[in-house]
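Something for you to look into today, if you have time. Just paste the record in under my message, thanks.
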Amino acid sequence: MVTINQSNNKMGALHLIGELAMSFVLASMVKVLQPDFSVFLILFFRYLFCLPLLVAYAIYSRGPKFLSITNIPGLALRTVFGFLGLTTWFLAITNIDISLATALTQTMPIFITGFSVVIAGEQVGLKRLVSVLVGFLGVLVLIFPITPALNLWGVLYALLAAVFSALMFVYLRVLGRTDPAVSTSIWYNFTGLILAGLLTYSLDSFEAVTSLSTPDSLYLLIALGFLASFQQYFLAQSHMYAQASILAPLHFLAIPFGIGVGILLFDEIITLKFLAGTAIIIASTYYIVLRQQANQ
């Protein structure tokens, strides 16, 4: 039994690392596309071309029951929070540096702790409460002093992405106990396609695509959706194999990924203030993760 659990944890970790790497490939593509297309149009193509591979794999693995889901309420909540999380993440990386947006989203465990108190009425010890306050101190170090160069909307979007992603991961793990990952991914992406399409139509009626002078950007939009299907698969599978408490520390790998992408592709500058704020957030959230694991 121990060997099986260890093997599952390793598989979960590998899938999560693959998801993190793929997410930054997608983030880079979004940042390149955004000057010419609205975030909602990018989301529409991401959802649209994410579906074919997922549907094909679901039919192959599940047959006629490829859309069958038992936990409908859990799926609805996972879908809503997933859509909001992805939307605010795209808005964040198009308004501020990828490195800064990544650091801010590492506040996810802090928000999970807050939810456990406010929503679930759980008792949280003094040490964890202090860790939450320290984490928010790290956020203040990152954004202060506020200068005209800092887009506060981008900061808000990044923090909202952390909130919605925290809620999404909770329900993703719940779904993983009863329903196949590929089926939940199909329903999530199909719903996201409808929502993004409606929002895009209300804003510009897809004019940005119909008026393209060259197809290069269209190819990039299609590739974005195609690669997103692999990201979705990696994400769902990671939570099928391993518990959220096991995977939580691996999310900190997003920091070096984000810094590397920001420096190499977008000439972002990493300052001592950024490193100090990021270190405070990581220390705080890592302590929270350890306390959560100890209480399980």
Remarks:
- The two ends are 19 Å apart (CA to CA).
- The mean pLDDT is 82.
- Residues 112 and 118 are 10 Å apart (CA to CA).
